[in-house]
Amino acid sequence: MHHFKGIPITNEEFCTLSPQNVFFRECDRQEVDTAAHRNRHILFRRSVTLKRFATATAYLSADDHYLLYVNGIFVAEGPAPAYHTRQNYNTVDLTPYLHSGDNLIAVHTYYQGLINRVWQSGDNRHFFLFDLEVDGKTVLVSDESFRTAPHTAYRAIGITGYDTDFLEEYDANAPEVGFESPDYNDSAWEYAKAATAFDQILFPQATEMLSYDRIAPLTAVRDGQRLQVDFGATYAGRLWVKVSGKGHSLVTVRLGEELNADQSVRYKLRANCCYEEAFRLKTGETVYAPYLYRAFRYAELLLPEDAEVDEILLLAQHYPFTAKTPIKPAYRDEPALVGLYQLCLHTLKYGVQDAPLDCLEREKGFYLGDGCYTSLAHMLVTGKDAMVRKLIDDAFASAFITDTLMCCLNASFMQEIAEFPLILCRLVLWHYRYTGDLDYLKTNYPKVTALLDAYRRDYERNHLLQNLDKWCVVEWPPNFRHGYDVDLTSGKVCREAHTVMNAYYIHAIRAANAMAAILSQPVYRDESPLIAAFTDAFYLPERLAFRDSTESSHTSFLSGLFAYAFSLCQDADAEREILGRIREEKVSSVSLFGAFVMLEGLVRHHEGALVREMLLDRGAWLRMLREDATTTFESWGKDTKWNTSLFHTTFSYAAVFLADVDLETLFP
Question: Which of 75, 118, 223, 419 is the most buried (most CB within 10 A)?
Answer without folding.
Answer: 118
